Amino acid sequence: MDKPGNITNPDASTEEKIKEAARVVFTAKGYAATTVRDIAAQANINLALVNYYFRSKEKLFDLIMAETMKILFDKIKPVIYDESTTLNEKISGIVDSYLELLLENPELPLFVVSEMRSGSDMLPKMTENGKLFLESHFAKQIRQLQAKGQLNFHPVNIMMNMLGLIVFPFIGRPLMLKTGIVNEEEFRKIIEERKKLIPLWIVSIINL
């Protein structure tokens, strides 16, 4: 995992500085191992200010997780709810949107996976977004394929394969960078290539 860095935006409000610092430390250390003092040190502010703005580590973490889930879903919501696009176009849109998001926030997958494994209470937030996904036009198009007998496997496999192909490179990114398999520039180039490759792979599975 990348080593936590300093706050990147010194002109941000104190509240935003605390949230940015918390994201860095939670990602690097996980919820259980993080202390409010760690967050204050990362933000270069007084410990009392963290408690003043957020009262507790738990409330700060809950806020960050809620924002994270919102970012993840809001990025693809316009794509999957668009009734004017084909399934192929939606697949390309989902892949492009998520890869762009993760290029901007490469530690996000590790953060989410780490907190899921630690047993943090992410389920309600993920369940809510899951319901919105099932109500989308994208899900409707998948169900239509299934009704026509064009899918000989469970439709969840489509999302599992697509998300796995999108997310796994970012989970493996710290190891690839540390061992010299790729450098940062090469990694970004690979991800740009995957914007074209992943939709081709998914469409070939569906036989559209």
TrEMBL record:
One of its GO terms (molecular function) is DNA binding. This is AcrR family transcriptional regulator. It comes from Mucilaginibacter gotjawali. The lineage of its organism: Bacteria, Pseudomonadati, Bacteroidota, Sphingobacteriia, Sphingobacteriales.
